[in-house]
Amino acid sequence: KAGVTQTPRYLIKTRGQQVTLSCSPISGHRSVSWYQQTPGQGLQFLFEYFSETQRNKGNFPGRFSGRQFSNSRSEMNVSTLELGDSALYLCASSLQLGQMNTEAFFGQGTRLTVV
Amino acid sequence: QKEVEQNSGPLSVPEGAIASLNCTYSDRGSQSFFWYRQYSGKSPELIMSIYSNGDKEDGRFTAQLNKASQYVSLLIRDSQPSDSATYLCAVSGGYQKVTFGTGTKLQVIP
Lengths: 115, 110
Fold this sequence. Notes:
Number of helices of chain B: 0
Number of strands of chain A: 11
Structural class of chain A: mainly beta
Shape of chain B: globular
Oligomer: heterodimer
C-alpha cells in the first residue's frame, strides 16, 4: 500500500512569490492535515480537510490556504512568501472511523526555503 | 497552558535501560492518543496509538493512558542507540484537530 506522497521534496523561492505544495494521501484516507515545522517550534497545525471541506484551521495568516479534491488529494498554497515561511511542510492522512480520529501517517515533507 | 505538554529533554538513558517519556494534555474530551518518533531531518513516524485507559504493548514499546489524570506515557524497554530521536505525543478529540506536543529528545548512550 502506497504511503503519503508529497511533492515537491525541496523548493527554493524568492520573497513575494507564491508556492503550491501537493499531497496524495493513503488510498481510502479522507482526512488530510497540513503542518509547518521549524527548528525549535514543533509541529504547528495549519489546517485539515475532510471530504473536500476544511474541517479545522490553525492560527496562520490568510496567506496560507488549502483545498482538497474529490480524490482526497490536497494542495496548500502560500502567497506573498516571507523569509519566516522557510520550514518543513508536512502532510498527514488519516482514516476517520465514526467520531474518532485514527492514526495519522505523514509524508516525507516539502522543505521550503525562502530567500 | 499548552494543550499538550512534554518535557523537551534531552532524556539520556544507557543502552539496555528503560526510557520513560511522559505527556500531559488539557482537554478532558480527548479520545485518541498517539506517539510518534522523529529522527532529525525526517518526518514523524507513528509508533503507537491508544484509545482507552490502561497499557498497550507492542514489542519493546508500551503506551500507558490515564484519562482521569490526563496523562499518557511511553515506555521503551531495552533501549537501543537507534531509539535516539525526538518523541512526539499527539492528542485528539472527536473531529478536532490532532494536537502535538513539542517533543522529548531521547539520547540512548552506548
